What we know:
This protein is 50% helix and 7% strand. It has helices at residues 4-8, 11-29, 34-38, 59-70, 89-98, 125-135, 141-168, 174-191, 204-207, 220-227, 232-237, 245-264, 274-279, 281-291, 304-311, 324-354, 357-371, 379-383, 386-398, 430-434, 453-458, 477-494; strands at residues 73-78, 81-86, 172-173, 405-408, 413-415, 418-420, 425-428, 495-498, 522-527. The chain is globular. Keywords: Endoplasmic reticulum, Heme, Iron, Membrane, Metal-binding, Monooxygenase, Oxidoreductase, Transmembrane, Transmembrane helix. Heme binds at residue 474.
Amino acid sequence: MEMSWFHSFPSTTFVLVVIVIVLLYLYSTWTFSTFKNMGVRGPTPWPLIGSMLEYRKGIVVKDLEWTKKYGKVCGIYEGRRPMLLVTDPEMCKQICVKHFSSFKNRNTLPLKSKPMSSRLFQLADDRWKVTRNTLTPSFSGSKMRLMSPLISRCADELIKNMEAHCKEGKTVQCKDLFGSYVVDSIASVGFGMDVSSQSQPEHPFVKHANLTAILSLFNPVFAIVFFFPFLLPLLKYFEIQLLPMKTIDYFSQVVGETIKLRNSDKGASQRVDFLQLMINAHEIYDEYVKSKEDDEDHDEGVNRVEFIKDSTHSSVNLSKGLSEDEMLAQSIVFFIAGYETTNATMSFVCYNLATNPETQEKLQKEIDEVMCNYDDVGYEAVSKMKYLDMVVSETLRMFPPPSRFNRECNQDININRINIPKGMTVSVSPYVIHHDPDNYPDPEKFIPERFSKEQKEKRHPYAWIPFGAGPRNCIGMRFALMELKMGLVRVLQKFTFEPCAETEIPPVLGKGIFLTPPNGIKLSVKLRE
């Protein structure tokens, strides 16, 4: 009687089910011999999910374990897709700089719906090169100097907020405190908007700020891309986006209305926010090439002027500037990329200072000495603070904003006796490189002096890559550093951080691509004597 269900089950259906299971198994595992054929070691993958089940412990945790067990170049599988994990500085240089032409594109989510298909992060080949060249002048040193007063006004609000916390004797949640400052800065510098999120937490701009869950490995879109790539046509057909449509619609409205207002305002071209600089992009680009500006904001291993001049021979039209969709896409990315990463880095810096009071005192002394020569905390002032730069650099070493960045191989190539086939994704782990004792003895210790000029010259130049490497490094690096340094200087002029009973030592790190601490960082803050 118990087996009656089995006997009533049609034999043809049973056979079809078995065939489907076998085909699914073969489909999900037929790539699993890739690294064995390449002579590259790595963890044994599971059918369908590859190595991704291991990520539940955290990406950086597994990257450290795999590197220790299999070496600084090992093979893992994201679903059924083979990916070469690189944690060697020289190999990073070979891929990102020396052989850049073979690895000039990123492997991104293959969702082509507008406007996000136009974001710089996703663009490839000529289209990426032209867009990058068009945007680069917006982040030059001269533009940072013009933008610094906008950031300074946002720092004023940050100081008022911290003074209120001090009067009430409260501990501070760094991610809330600095999150508001970063949102205000991005809104002002990116969109020309006065958000004042510290006093208006319900502002729509603020509500769209926390997009951490979207970038989680457990996002259903990620699951479909990695585990069931054959379903991608459905995502494209229904125009499914990685970002919520309400977020895209909000920014689309903001950008569209702002562009209309700017086009009707004859004096708008003199504004220095990021959106206006994109509107003026074609004029800035012409000026940039003519002046052959060669400032410090360079892509390692590539002469920027020659790189730009080479683009003039591209098949893509340089003179058209940016379309509204392109401006919208870059604006959203400017917001997403800048919010979580800068917020987290400022929090980590304050944690390091609170748990290393001698370093905090030394930094405050430098700030006081430098500011004797300046009326305001701006781009010029913070650029004179060498110890501040060491503190920030060491924090970025310990807690790099992205735990990984990737490149896609576009032709068969042999690097360091490893044959990398066309189409393979290569993922570089800044976190593992930064925590390798071969590069940094006692890597878990906070030692800003590692970044003195003498110590930096002793290390491989690609042993510190918190903003990526090569021509596709983070275009907003200079802005991010200015924003966080100006905020930190203003805060440390008046306040001192200390650990409190709620401070997690060491801080708990996020398990995804970004190391944002899930519980935030809580500290005690006191007025300086």
